[in-house]
Amino acid sequence: MATMQLRAIDPAHLANLSRALVGFDHIFNQHLHPANSNYPPHNIVKYSDSEYAIEIAVAGFSKEEITVEVNQDTLIVRGVQLPSDVTGKEYLHRGLASRDFEQSYTLAEYMEVKDAEVTDGMLIIKIERIVPEALKPRQILIK
Predict the structure, then answer these.
(1) Which of 41, 38, 67 is nearest to 54 (CA)?
(2) Phi, psi of 86 (to 5 degrees)
(3) What are the structural domains, with CATH classification, of the chain?
């Protein structure tokens, strides 16, 4: 019979997994932070046990060039810039990253995307955990 050797888990791998699984944060060590190596840079913010947000730096993208889609338990964010012949812009120097992107995030059970807005070059996607009343803990009256 083959034996498995337990090895230390690389924190970078857990950080990437934590970034991808919004709402599963209670599973991960609080000291691990998501890796920001992917383009575009982003933050995942926890405001309370039921309120979260994903902040994505989208400088150089208009809101018409960004789509936010929820497909079952996956949140997909895409940015596709219009070509310069459509926008009428001629860049003499382009210091801002201009590549298209697609980010996907797996949402935990009962996570619902509530809102998305672009403000000051940041796309802010608000997410809320909405647990059905039937699944919430309840006190039973003793007769």
Answers:
(1) 41
(2) -85, -40
(3) 11-135 (2.60.40.790)
Q: Quick one: tokens of 98?
A: 């201009």
**Could you give the CA distance from residue 60 to residue 62 in angstroms, rounded to a whole number?**
7
Output the DSSP codes for the chain. ---PPP-PPPHHHHHHHHHHEET-GGGS-TT------SSSPEEEEE-SSSEEEEEEE-TT--GGGEEEEEETTEEEEEE-PPPHHHHT---S---S----EEEEEEEPTTEEEEEEEEETTEEEEEEEE---GGGS--PPPP-
121-140: per-residue pLDDT in tens?
999 999 999 989 888 888 99
Q: How far apart are CA 98 and CA 78, in angstroms?
A: 13
| The dihedral sign for the CA sequence 71, 75, 80, 81 | positive
Question: Model-level pTM greater than 0.85?
Answer: no
